[in-house]
Design brief:
Blueprint lengths: L13 H18 L6 H21 L2
Length: 60
């Protein structure tokens, strides 16, 4: 049976490159906004989520 996988040495740094791409895309998405600043929308979404979560926890 022949091995067709790539040796581990050639895959070094792949996770770092993927992390860098996702992080940079997230930063660009948060800094570029049309009408509502994306950071304010994110804070509002977290507040809404927390209020719904705390309401669910208060139910018997």
């Amino acid at each position: 049976m022949a091995r067709t996988s790539v040796p581990f040495g050639r895959q070094r740094g792949q996770a770092y490159a993927e992390y860098l791409m996702v992080t940079s895309a997230l930063v660009v998405a948060l800094l570029v906004g049309d009408q509502i600043p994306p950071i304010a929308a994110l804070v509002t979404a977290f507040k809404s989520f927390f209020s719904a979560y705390s309401f669910t926890l208060s139910l018997p």
